[in-house]
Each structure stands twice: as C-alpha cells, then as structure tokens.
Amino acid sequence: MNLTGILRDRAAERPDATALIHEGVRVSYGEFDRRVDQVATALRASGVRPGDRVAVLDKNSLAYAEVLFGAARAGAVQVPINYRLSADEIAYIVDNSKAPVLVVGHEFLPMLDAIADRLEHTEHLIVVGGTDHRYTDYDTWTDGDAERGDESGEVFVQLYSSGTTGRPKGVMLTHENFLTAVPMSQEIWNLRPDSALMVAMPMYHIAGCILTVCAIYDGIPCVIVREPDPVRIARAVEAHKVTHVFLVPVLLLLMQQLPQVGEADLSSLRLLIYGASPISEDVLRGAMGMLPSCDFMQVYGLTETTGAISHLPPADHMPDGTRLRSAGIANPGTELKIIDPATSEPVPTGRVGEIVCRSPQNMKGYWSLEQATRDAMLPGGWLRTGDAGYLDEDGYLYIHDRVKDMIISGGENIYPAEVENVLMSHPAVADCAVIGVPDEKWGETPKAIVVRDGEVGERELIDFCRSGLAHFKCPTSVEWTDSIPRNPTGKVLKRDLRKPYWEHENRAVR
C-alpha cells in the first residue's frame, strides 16, 4: 500500500467528507482524489516519468497538497522549496533535483522571473493563481480528463535540509517511512473521527508535510493555514474547531504576546504539539497557562527521521513537573542511543553526547550524495542526528543543542540551550541566543544576544545566570538587539550571529 492508495480508499469510503479546508474553501475526499488524478495526468502529459522530481515554490495552499499526492500518483517525487531562500539557493535546489516541472505560487512570480532562464533541467513552469503568456496557468494545466492510475514509486517526497551550514541536501523519504510514522502519530496523538488537524507550519517543512499526510491517512479534515502567523492560526482554530495543531516555540511565545490571540476562542484544541527547536520553560509554562484545557506534547525528530521519533506525553506536562525540559521517550519501534561524537562509542547514562537513532522512519538517504549518506549512517542502521543530549535512567531524552553549536571554553563543553533557558526565565528578557565568541585565554567564551522587555543591564544578566549555572557556562558579555534571526521553523541562525566575531579568524573555533 502507498500513500495515494490510502487517499483512494478514503475517497471511496467517504467521498463527501471534508478533506481540506483553506481560506474558506472546503474540498471533499472525492474531489481531492479527482484533483490528484488530474495533477498526475498533467504531469505525465508534461513528460514526467516515474522517479522524476517535481519542484514546488509556494506558501501553503490546496495546490501544494494536490501536487504532493499527484506527483506520487505519477510515480514522481515532490520537491518542496523554502520560499524564503534567495534566488541562487532556489535555483540550486531546482537544478540539483533535476526537476522537469516547477510549480510556483503567483506571489513568487518575481522570483520565477529571476531564475527561469537559469534552470538547466526544467522545461515546464507552472504558476498557481493566474499568470501571463510567459508561463502555464495551473488551473489550465490540470483542466482535462483525468486518468486513473498509480505508478507507486519508492520515494514519496524529497525535502531539502535548511542549509544553515553549506549547501542544502535533498532528504529522500519513502512511502514506507511515512506509513511507519503516520499510524504511530494516530495512536500517540489520539486522533479520532471527529478530530480536525491544522497544518500551520510550511509544507516544505517535515512538520507541515507529515501533518498533511496524517490527516489524509486518518480521513479527517486538514485545515491549511497559508503561513505561520499567530493571529491567522488562532482565528482558523476558532473558525474550524481545530482539535490538533503543531507549533514551534517561537509561535507559542508570540501567541502569548498578541492580544488578538487572547480574544480568539481556542477551546476546541485538545492537543498542542510543539517541537523543532528548543523551548524555554517559561514559554512552555506560559502557553500551558494560556490553554489550560488543552493537552501539550513535545516531539523531537528530524527531516531525516520523517518527523518525530520521541514524545513527551501530556501526563509529564505538570506546571511544576521535573520533566518539562525533556523531549520524552522514544516512539514505539524507535531506539535511541547516546554516543561520543568523536569515537561513535556509547557513553554512560546521564552523560551528554550525540543522539543517534534506529528506526524504520530513517531516510533512504541524501539525493546524489553517497558520501554524506554514509557519514550520516552508522553500522547497524543507526542515524546520526547531529544533536547533543543525554538519556536519564528512565529513558527520557534531554536535548542540549546541536553538536556544531557547542561552545568549548577552556576545555569545558557548554551547550547554548542550557544558558538560553536560564536567560529566558529573567522577566526583562523577551528573546535570546547564546553563541561562542573568540577569547585569547579560553579559546572562546559564551556571549548572550538579548532582546530586552524591560530595564536590565549586562552585569545583572550575567549575575542572574551565575545564580543558576556553573560560572564557566555563564555569558562573559551581553549584546542587545531588536530581534533574533531565525529560519521559518524557528531555529536561531547562529551562523549569522557568529559571523561578525569569527570572520577575521582562521577557523570558526580556536
């Protein structure tokens, strides 16, 4: 069974039930299945063969979901593209994937104009939402008699890594990966026939992608929000009685700060799932106070693991709970282990090292990057996550940071997330990030980049950290800023923050 076969079954079982809701438009399962057939037919007519890639550049939309399943039904593979990337980065991904078809949202026409003549492999440029004679209109392209067929390729989607270091890599995720992950989510999230699942994260992100698939797998409504805006999310929850939603921590922070969110009726929410970047205990407790009747669940995973591989259940979300900083326990069928990143040998319980996992959700590999795939995979089916953390005696996972973001000061390892968690508990700190900066004596020392929400000075913040952390972990300096740079999933762009301090050094560490 593949994912488009699942959709075919849902359309046969309940053709009139709502499949997708987007900006006031409702699409039934029967209609969605027909639209997917039309997209698959259009792709075949455009010369797309099984195994080809179909690139998409747009914000969340009905067409995005149609192309996701339509490409798979033609035996092809959707390649979603981060719309916040530069023209050079977008052109690189389209060319790297060798996509013969590129589907673009109307608001990104200027970007398409900038790259159209540079695309080496792309013959068909399709625009959603109206266009001119230069490109093919999406509705015209898909307006024809649909052929019923299912080529069923192995790879379902090719998601490109965020590229915060070096060129982005195409992560190949298979139908089997999704068909392992999705039923598990159904069980852990307690999805029921009366549930409504929101896709608020970009569909080029693993969270947006897998939530779309989850809704179709379970035959429930999928409420698609065009972009991750806190007010739009709150109003869509109220309008469509959403029961389940996934949000990143920065959205939880913003939702607590915006009065429009507080005015919305969010009482339909039964489960708020959060993850994708570190969260401070203050932000989490504030969100729990904002939604007292809603269960909370943290999930941890990667694009390379088809999303979540661990979860912190609602039962562990007590306001004074000791496990609020934990990413929870391994999902059924997934094994977690902590290794020394230098030797790949296991480390004792409670000691920080690199998190590795063994799971049927682990990716097929990186597109056209055999060495990178070998580097990520350890013998025995273990995948290196690149994240640092530890397991306690009960098997709960605690994540410290990315291994590459670790600060080594005087031989001591410092994980920025631990320092950031303390800083965020200060009442005058609205947001922050901690980076390592060069130091003649210690090699590097922690520096706090802070967004203030009140009066506070450098010395006060440093002393505040010293009251709860070992002195060697505390910032030696503080810089004030208006905002912390983040990618669309909420991850802090620490490379951008570090650059001014390291650009005149011979290497990024001393």
User: Stretches where pLDDT falls below 50 for ≥5 residues?
Assistant: 506-510
Tell me the span between the first and last alpha carbons: 52 Å
The residue fraction in helices comes out at: 25-40%
Mean pLDDT across residues: 92
Largest sheet: 9 strands, mixed
Oligomer: single chain
Supply Rg: 23 Å
Query: Count of DSSP E strands?
Result: 27
Strand order of the largest sheet: 2-1-11-10-12-13-14-15-16
CATH level 1 class label of the domain at 28-153: Alpha Beta
Question: Which key features would you list for this structure?
Answer:
510 residues; alpha/beta; Rossmann fold; 9-stranded mixed β-sheet; 5-stranded parallel β-sheet; 16 helices
Q: Would you write up a description of this structure?
A:
The chain is an alpha/beta fold. Among the domains are: 28-153, 3-Layer(aba) Sandwich (Rossmann fold), CATH 3.40.50; 406-502, ANL, C-terminal domain (GMP Synthetase, Chain A, domain 3, 2-Layer Sandwich). The protein has 16 helices and 27 strands. The longest helix has 17 residues, at 29-45.
